[in-house]
Amino acid sequence: MSDFHKDSFLEFAPPVEFGGPTTPILETTSPDLSNAEIQEIITQSRTFIDSAINEEIKASYLMEWLTYALYSSVKMRQESTVRDICSIVFKLAEKDIDTLSTLLEKNFEVGPFKGQALLFVWMNALYSSTFDARTYTNIVAINYIFAYVIEHTTLEFSSALTKAVEEGQEQGKSPFILMLLSLIQAAQTRFNQPATTHIAKFLLFCMGKYPEATSQVLIQPIAAGAFHNKHGLYLLANALKFSVKDNSETSQIICKVLGDMVHYVAADSLANALLAKIARGPQEGLVPLHIILRSLTSAAYVNDSNHETIKAVIDMLEQFFNIIPLPTIIHALSEEIVSKDHTYGGKHGIRMLVEAFIAGMEHGHDMSALMALFSKLINSNPALLMNALTREINEKPSCLEYIIRKYNEAAESTTLSVQIGELLRKIDESLSLDEKVLWNAHVTKIYASLMPAATEVSTEVAAGTEASAAAIDTTETPSHYTKARFFSTVHSTALMAREHDQEDNPTPPSRLH
Questions:
Q1: Which one, out of 16, 181, 367, 384, has a CA that is 20 to 30 A from the CA of 398?
Q2: Distance CA 153, CA 160 (A)
Q3: Quick check: is 348 in a domain?
Q4: What is the pLDDT, as a whole number, of residue 345?
Q5: Distance, CA of 378 to CA of 374 (rounded, Å)
Q6: Where on the tree of life does the source sit, at the highest rank (predicted)?
Q7: What is the pLDDT of residue 10?
Q8: CA separation for the pair 443, 420 (Å, rounded)
Q9: How far apart are CA 200 and CA 324, in angstroms?
Q10: The domain containing residue 81 runs over which residues?
């Protein structure tokens, strides 16, 4: 449409008292509208869509005014008004989807939203609606509009969904990043599981329609703003952390999104995103993989009812481990975590993997798939793994001591006892003869500290089988020690679960920056 046509149309348009479809947004126009102004915009917009041709709608300021009305309605928690506004936009979508998609891609030229696309402001309204479970209908209505637009537009619309704001306080964020932030906030808002799952399903829908574009957003660092140098993968890892204990459906969707992503990204790009150290904030020093492993442990503490979540997380990890070179993964997991979060003090990724493995078995979950992943790491670099397991960090007990304590806590011949014994056997078998000497020396030292009266301790437990005892000539002692004899000071499972739950209290979104 020519500028002349546009100017001519606006010149003869009837005046609007509270602003309307043909009245431009001015620098002084506030997005904080009164109820009367909102209703006037709704009424005039309905009439305008019915009477105007598509070119006239494209030349108008219809969507700018409806966006202002949406902003005010969400802010005032007027759910019925939000639905009215969405119904008008859906009416436009049915009339001409190309017109609506064109308008959503426009940037505000003045006002508080200057530089932001209309699509971005609408997605921000979605985000604002996640802080209160009572505004669930807002999320449904806004998502319905977006899903319809994405379903009926070409792949070119993906650029609007993933385009970042270049100026102002929202710099660096895109509508897609806002969707991820909405998922995080919904996941940690009480009684908000339906909204969380709704957003997760919409995320999966976007991933299915634009797999290449959305996958790139997940693994590319955010260029500016509050989340500078963080990745979409980091945001999804936090969404998973807040979902695993009480929202299995959402957790499985997040894992599917991340699992599907690996088919559209290069291995080095995935490794950079998954293993990139967080430079600031309360999670400083962690990498997204640590957050995912923490999520797996949290899921494992839910007795008997979280099998599908655990399976989904492990399957996702397996996909990561299949595309990223194992030496890269084991080096990252073996590195000491230096973080502001005390939860991770004295730990590394290998320790977290072990904790998830043991917690799962203690709570009745099938962890055989995780054992298979552990076996891959063992075979990749047994010496480095042994070093990680036996290393004491900040004068805290080594991971090997944690394993041996858990082995001896378990009743003999239980799944926990058998599986830990199998894990220790795999480690022992992978080591060279010189490494076995060091390994068994560590085992002996640990048992001596647990049972000071013993001067000679069997290395049988180190490998979980009698065969390993022959590797080093030691005096045999019982291969199993009871909890009552040695572990009276060790926390019970119930206490550990409670402490773990306290450590996992949700982090407010502002602190994730």
A1: 367
A2: 11
A3: no
A4: 78
A5: 6
A6: Bacteria
A7: 38
A8: 14
A9: 26
A10: 13-152
The per-residue pLDDT for 449 is: 82
Which DSSP state fits 345? T
Please report where in the chains the tokens 């007990």 appear, as a residue: 397
Residues 6 or more apart whose CB falls under 8 angstroms from that of 317 comprise 292, 296, 370, 373
Q: Do the Cβ atoms of 111 and 29 come closer than 8 Å?
A: yes
HEC per residue, 150-161: HHHCCCCHHHHH
In 3D space, the residue among 82, 121, 87, 88 whose CA is nearest the CA of residue 104 turns out to be 121
pLDDT value of position 452: 54
> What is the rounded distance in angstroms from the CA atom of residue 100 to the CA atom of residue 104?
6
For the chain, how many residues are written? 513
Contact between 329 and 377 (Cβ < 8 Å): yes
Of 167, 156, 49, 148, nearest to 108 by C-alpha is: 167
- Of 152, 171, 196, which residue is a domain's last? 152
What is the secondary structure of 46-91 as a DSSP string?
HHHHHHS-HHHHHHS-HHHHHHHHHHHHHHTT-HHHHHHHHHHHHH
Number of CB atoms found within 10 A of residue 199's CB: 29
Q: For the chain (length 513 residues), average pLDDT per consecutive 10?
A: 39 44 90 94 96 96 97 97 98 97 96 96 97 95 96 93 94 97 95 95 97 96 91 97 95 97 96 94 92 96 86 97 95 91 85 95 92 93 94 87 88 83 91 93 87 47 42 36 31 38 43 41
Our count of domains for the chain comes to 2
The CA–CA distances, whole Å, from 134 to 124, 141, 182, 245, 311 equal 17, 14, 15, 22, 32
Tell me the two tokens of residue 115: 């530089």
Given CA atoms 78, 80, 82, 88 in this order, what sign does their dihedral have?
A: negative
pLDDT of residue 456: 43
Q: How far is CA 81 from the centre of its chain?
A: 32
Q: What is the pLDDT of residue 8?
A: 37
Helix axes 349-362, 326-334, angle to 10 degrees: 90
In 3D space, the residue among 229, 355, 225, 381 whose CA is nearest the CA of residue 301 turns out to be: 355
- On whether residue 104 sits in a domain, the answer given is yes
Taking CA atoms, 482 is separated from 201, 208, 368, 437, 462, in Å, by 48, 52, 25, 26, 16
Cα–Cα distance for residue pair 66/64, rounded to 1 Å = 6
Pick from 117, 152, 187: which residue ends a domain? 152
Confidence at residue 410, expressed as pLDDT on a 0 to 100 scale: 80
Angle at the Cα of 307 from the Cα atoms of 304 and 312, rounded to 5 degrees: 160
Residue 394 placed within a domain: yes
Residues β-bridged to residue 117:
107
* Closest residue by Cα to residue 352 from 335, 376, 328: 335
Pick from 288, 290, 310: nearest CA to 299: 310
pLDDT at 166: 93
Please, where are the H alpha helices in 188-286? 193-209, 211-219, 232-243, 248-261, 267-274
